[in-house]
Protein: Peroxygenase 5
Organism: Solanum commersonii
Amino acid sequence: MASSSNNFDEEGIEKKEEPTPLEKHVMFFDINKDGVIYPWETYKGFRKIGSGVLLSTVASIFINIGLSGKTRPGKWPSPLFPIEVKNIKFAKHSSDSDIYDTEGRFVPEKFEELFNKHGRTNDNALTGEELDELLKANKQPKDFAGHIAAKSEWKILYLLCKDENGMLPKETIRSVYDGSLFEQMAKEKQSKKHRGKSSS
């Protein structure tokens, strides 16, 4: 069957589709950029953004075991628990904020709604208590797995990114959804490392 002409540019070269925001969100952990994320890559990614050994280990096991099968529809389970980036939309869990739609696209209205509903202390940040309220509000009945996944994601984000007043800034949360936060955190960690070496 002939490919659609929409998939090619004016010179007849096949165009690559732009990754969705959800794909960008996880691509940071694809260390060798082959489209597949293994547990050791997830571990390295967490270490790059400043997570300790224990959190990085637990997160890599939990995330890859939880998402691998969902991103590999029709395939046999793999003991290496790979996550296929192009299929990450299939791993979208329930009891979440729906800021990503079913295709992994960012929904600005849902993002603003989150702060309109829960950002009472500050319009541009969430406190730890407000985060708990958000998780409780999004929890669907009898959805233990989805709630645990959502809680883990938000709690890790809060632990790593809260400011000195215990607030999770709106811009930080926004950068999670557009996929830029992890690169930014890795650069900051690297910069601190260099500053530490130069001052010693």
In short: The longest strand covers residues 125-127.
